[in-house]
Each structure stands twice: as structure tokens, then as C-alpha cells.
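Quick illustration for those who missed Monday's session on complexes.
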Amino acid sequence: MIILKNKAELMLMRDSGKIAALARATGGEMAKAGVTTAAIDAKIRQVIRSHGATPSFLGYGGFPGSACISVNDEVIHGIPSDRVLKDGDIVKIDVGAFYKGFHSDCAATFAVGQVSEEALKLIAVTEESFRQGMAKAVPDARLGDISAAVQAYVEANGFSVVREYVGHGVGRELHEDPSLPNFGTPGRGVRLRSGMTLAIEPMVNVGVYDVRVLSDDWTVVTADGKLSAHYENTVAITDNGPVILTAL
Ligand code: MG
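Prediction with magnesium ion bound:
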């Protein structure tokens, strides 16, 4: 069941989203050579808590971090650790905040120092594919319009979209209906309505779209070991068009 949010609820989600966006930005500023992913996670936890919010991911299904921090071929769900970032890495920071009864969820991919041309293109294409998808998030469109727009942009740029993990509704629960694949057919799927709140989150691979899960039971990596990028915002569908709730 898709839960619509009224204006007051959307304002609370916007407050939550500001905190998640700040945590994401703070993490991104720390993504430099010599820094551990655990240090970034600790700072993110501090930022979220200092605003009176709770990290949505901490303890979710037993997840041990406040953020998912995934490096290079790691797609999503990387566990913060003593891994030291190095020049040329790309790092995905995925953050959720729970505030005044509502979750918000956002992610971005950051370059550590000097990265390859391919990595820069991957990061840019992934972020733009989010924007292409978001542009379709308007009342009376279909869910598949978002999915298809993401997929078309990614594939036109020679990359692939992950199939096994998808975007989702978000609100009082971190994961609500509907599931939002990053691939699909225009004109298919549920009709979009004002008051829907969606985590639109393309996961984009340089090589094949296949992924596997490491023995830690969390970290999702590309099957071919090539790079992956992730970009996500919580977006509200309104009569005035899509609104990014996870903005500063
Ligand atoms: Mg998400």
C-alpha cells in the first residue's frame, strides 16, 4: 500500500531530509585519502544526533553503521571499517535520518583525490540519471516512466543499471511501497499521485549489471569487479512538480 503524505507531513520529511543531506555532505567533505570509512561514519552519526535525529540505518536489520559506505566496486551496503581511502577511489555514502516520525534517505558518490576519466563520467552519469528520473515524478505519470528514464540515460552512456536492488517509498518506514526499479517501461506501473514520497536511487555499473553479496552478508559488489556509483534523494511528488526533500 502506498502511503500519501499531507502537507504537514511533507514539511516534517523536509526537516528530516535536511539533516540527512547535511550528513551526506559532511561525509563527502571527509572523503579524502588517508581517512577511514569508520571515521566518516562516526562523523555522520554525530551530525545526525546533534540535530536531534536518529541514524535510520544503525541497527536496521542488524546493520552496524550509521551510514553505508561503499568503495569502488562496492555498490551499496558497505560496512564502515578501518579501510583507509586512497587517491583514485570513489566512495558512495548512503545516509538515512529519522526525525519527528519520518525517515529520509539519500546517497552520493564522491571522488577521492584524482580519479580516472571513467570514474568521473560514471559519477556524472549516475547523478544525471537521477535527475532524468525525477523529472518524470509528476502526478498522473506512471512509476515506469521514472524507471525507464533512468535506464535510458544510463544505457545511452554505455553503463548498466543494477537490477537486484531498487528504490522505494519512504516515510514513517524507511522502506515503503512502491518498489522503484531503475529499469522499466514507460506508461507501466502504478499511477503517480501528489503526496507520494520516493527514494529515487540509481545504482550504475561500468560493466555488467550483475552483483553479488560478500561474506559479511551486507556489502554488495559488482560481479565483474568494475566500478559502481550510486546517487539518491528522497523526492516528494507534488502538484507543483517533484521536490527534493533531502536537500540542504
Ligand atoms: Mg534508499
